[in-house]
Description:
Helix content of chain A: 25-40%
Number of domains of chain A: 1
Largest sheet of chain B: 7 strands, mixed
CATH topology of the largest domain in chain B: Rossmann fold
Number of helices of chain A: 8
Distance between the termini of chain A: 14 Å
Largest interface: A-B, 31 and 29 residues
Number of strands of chain B: 12
Strand order of the largest sheet of chain B: 2-1-3-4-6-5-10
CATH superfamily of chain A: Thiamin diphosphate (ThDP)-binding fold, Pyr/PP domains
CATH class of the largest domain in chain B: Alpha Beta
Order of helices and strands of chain B: HEHEHEHHEHEHEEEHEEEHEHH
CATH superfamily of the largest domain in chain B: Thiamin diphosphate (ThDP)-binding fold, Pyr/PP domains
Helix content of chain B: 25-40%
Radius of gyration of chain B: 19 Å
Structural class of chain B: alpha/beta
Oligomer: heterodimer
Number of domains of chain B: 2
Amino acid sequence: xxxxxxxxxxxxxxxxxxxxxGEGHVASAFSILDALYVLYQAHVTYxxxxxxxxxxxxxxxxxxxxxxxxYAVLSSCGFFxxxxxxxxxxxxxxxxxxxxxxxxxxxxxxxxxxxHGLPMAVGIAKALKMMGKPxxxxxxxxxxxxxxxxxxxxLLIAEQHKLDNIVLLVDYNHSNDxxxxxxxxLLGKLKSFGCTIEGVDGHNHGSxxxxxxxxxxxxxxxxxxxxxxxxxxxxxxxxxxAWHHRAPTSEELNRFLEELA
Amino acid sequence: xxxxxxxxxTKLLADDPSRVLLLGDIGVFGFRQAAADFPGRVINVGxxxxxxxxxxxxxAMAGMKPIVHTIAPFxxxxxxxxxxxDFGYQKLSGTFVSVGGSFDYASLGCTHHCPGDVNLIENIDxxxxxxxxxxxxxxxxxxxxSHWGNKYIRLSETSNSKPVSDNPISPTLVRMGDxxxxxxxxxxxxxxxxxxxxxxxxxxxxxxxxxxxxxxHEITLPNKNVIVVEPYYSSQLANRIARSHTSKHIQINxxxxxxxxRFIEEYGDQNxxxxxxxxxxxxxxxxxxxxxxxPPSYEKTPRx
Lengths: 261, 304
């Protein structure tokens, strides 16, 4: 099974979970799924038997509405059984429409309100530096989320404190172009805030792998800008704002599963 | 009170290497010695309160014990969602210490007023709220609550003439009145004003530095009337006292003597503003006297 086959499997799980729940940000999950999968497969140090292990790397999904992708990846890593996804958003479930760190092993932060993840990543990274620990902190934000001032505040702090143990993944799916378009300058803006920048195809596993693989540079936050398609893999969903927050009907589910076959 | 804050926090930093102080570009001069003594653990983060509180949450997630200090409206109102989500919802622990609550910066205008801080923090589950009325009480609070979870500590420009409280959990009985008159609960720096107001009236006076936790059910209310005097927008304390005593057979009249929910567009010092707002000893005495001479009919809902 190729890595792309594995991701397709997870997309099926996500579609089914959203359908069963009648809820979910499926398109956002599909936007980041490739990157999250490669990240956990190749780069993140974790211990499913001890999710709070002192040796772990920290992963914060700041764009919490993409949590179905995180749930699918965490279950594929063994943090919890994949059957749990069938409880998504149901009363009594641990898996909500945004992730909750007090309920789900492997989830570091309770996100959902945008602009909270990167400040927390900065705090974790600062603490790790103070303790002389080598762990890394990965934070995934969306391009829309980057409207939040707290993200840019965090980059100011990170630059000041030389937090080169942060890897910032920007899911650049252009969902925000209808509000504030960054034009061709998102990379430039991030660079001007002290990040080292690499732009890659956010659905190309090899590109993601190599971009995330390079080490820290001169005290700077490493920023990987993932050029992505919201709803990637389902034509009707791709870059279609109607699918930002919507679950597939039975008919749509069957059609989408066929498309993924 | 600020000097005591520096002294007590410096001791906390010395006692535990996991403690870290984050400053919002205030108090930096006062903490210069602590910054030299504990390199890297006194951080002037800058003027970016949302990221500062989020950063404090990250520090706590990695095992540190953050203390965040800046001006009340910027700590509580600007970074409110970070306090609510990052600390409250995620069940992390942090200490948040403000200056400039209510009209401590009266002459600087509404941007720097913050009479709503206690009320806002009360809405976040799990936060203790502490309002010392004297520098010694601030020292006591910082010494004795270091193991508590989230706590909001409100420094004030005004202090009572002497310390009264020796613990943050139990209210202090300052004066015992008779059973025919109301109980007055003074919060933090209001005590001197309360004592001036009650004069020779035979009311009971309790004093507390804690808005939460507060053992409302332990308060004895012989004549079923209680008035809470607090130097900010009315908190839920009067309501909590009333609810803890109200039953089918007993109804409590509880009210708050506090600051009105208004933008104060006048300048001048805090005393002048309080005078304008009717928040002073004689006005309080008039209100208490009215209750004594003409007890209010029992209301289930306390008047704010």
